[in-house]
Amino acid sequence: MLKIRFSCGFYTLLLMATLLLPLISSAASKWKSLEKDGIHDPDSPAMGVLQEPAAALSKLPQNTSGNMVDWVKALEDGAIHPRTNLWPETKVRIRNDDVFLEKTGEMPVVRFPHRAHTMWLDCKNCHEKYFISKKGANPITMMKILQGYYCGRCHGAVAFPLTECDRCHSVPRSKLEKIKAESRKAENRK
Ligand code: HEC
Ligand code: HEC
Ligand code: HEC
C-alpha cells in the first residue's frame, strides 16, 4: 500500500517536472543562444564576441511569435532607428491608407496597412510586380499565400509567420464599417 502511494507520488512529481521544465526554461529565455541555434558554428572564434539574440531582442517591444519582437511597434515607438536610405537622392515614400481585403469567407476581414509596410519598404518592393496597385485587382487566396505568393513572399519568411491568423484577419465583419471610417480619418497622419 505504502509502496504504491510512494510510487504514485513519485511518478506524478516526475511527470509534472517534465511538463513544467520546458515552460520554465522557455520563460527564462525565448531565444536560442548562438551556440545552439543550429546556424552558428559553436567552435567559431566569433562565439563570445557576437551579441546573443536574447541580449539584443529582450530590450524591444515583445510579441508572441517569430523572433518575439513587435517590429512595427519598435519602429513607431522609436526603439529602433533603421537607416531609411543609402543615397541622399532617394525619396522616402510613406502611405497611410489601409486596404480592406474582404474575400475571407468565415474569417474576419484582412486589414492591409500601407503605413506599417512603407515604414520599412518602398512601393517598388510590392508594386507592380507582386501586387497591382488597384484595390481588388489581385486574385489573392490563402492557398497562394501559404505557397509563398502575395503576402507569403514576406510573411513566414522575413515578417511575422502565417500561423498568426488574427494579425492579418483582424477586422470582425460586425465592426467593418466603423473601422473603415476610423481608418479614413487616420490617413492624414504624417
Ligand atoms: C499575412 C496575412 C495573413 C495571414 C497571417 C493569414 N491570412 Fe488568411 N488571407 C489573407 C488574405 C490577404 C486573404 C485574401 C483576402 C481577399 O482576397 O480579399 C486571405 C484569405 C483567407 C481565407 C479565404 C479563403 C481563401 O482560401 O482565400 C481564409 C479562410 C483564410 N484566409 C484563413 C486564414 C487562417 C486560418 C489563417 C491562419 C492559419 C490565415 N488565414 C492567416 C491574409 C492572411
Ligand atoms: C508590402 C507591399 C506593399 C507596399 C510596400 C506598398 N503597397 Fe500599395 N498595395 C498593396 C496591396 C496588398 C494593395 C491592395 C491590392 C488589392 O486590393 O488587391 C495595395 C493597393 C494600393 C493602391 C490601390 C488602393 C485603393 O484603395 O484602390 C495604391 C494606389 C497603392 N497600393 C499605392 C502604393 C504606393 C504609392 C506605395 C508606396 C508609398 C505602396 N502602395 C506600397 C501592397 C503594397
Ligand atoms: C515585401 C514584404 C511584405 C509583403 C509582400 C507583405 N508584408 Fe506585411 N509586413 C512586412 C514587414 C517587414 C512587416 C513588419 C515586421 C513584422 O511585423 O513582422 C509587416 C507587418 C505587417 C502587419 C503588422 C502591422 C502592425 O501594425 O503590427 C500586418 C497586419 C501585415 N504585415 C499584413 C500583410 C498582408 C495582409 C499582406 C498581403 C496583402 C502583407 N502584409 C504583405 C512585409 C511584407
Secondary structure layout:
Layout lengths: L1 H27 L24 H5 L13 H6 L21 E4 L8 E4 H5 L23 H5 L18 H4 L7 H11 L4
Antiparallel strand pairs: 1-2
Bound molecules: heme C (3 copies).
The site of one heme C has 20 residues, from strand 1 and helix 4.
Explain this structure:
With 190 residues, the chain is mainly alpha-helical. Among the domains are: 1-30; 98-186, Cytochrome C3 (Alpha-Beta Complex), CATH 3.90.10. 33% of the residues lie in helices and 4% in strands. The protein has helices at 2-28, 53-57, 71-76, 114-118, 142-146, 165-168, 176-186, and strands spanning 98-101, 110-113. It has a two-stranded antiparallel sheet with strand order 1-2. Strand 1 (98-101) and strand 2 (110-113) form a beta hairpin. The longest helix has 27 residues, at 2-28. It is globular, with a radius of gyration of 23 Å. It starts with a helix and ends with a helix. The relative contact order is 0.09. The model is unreliable at 22-28 (pLDDT under 50). One heme C binds next to helix 3, strand 2, helix 4 and helix 6.
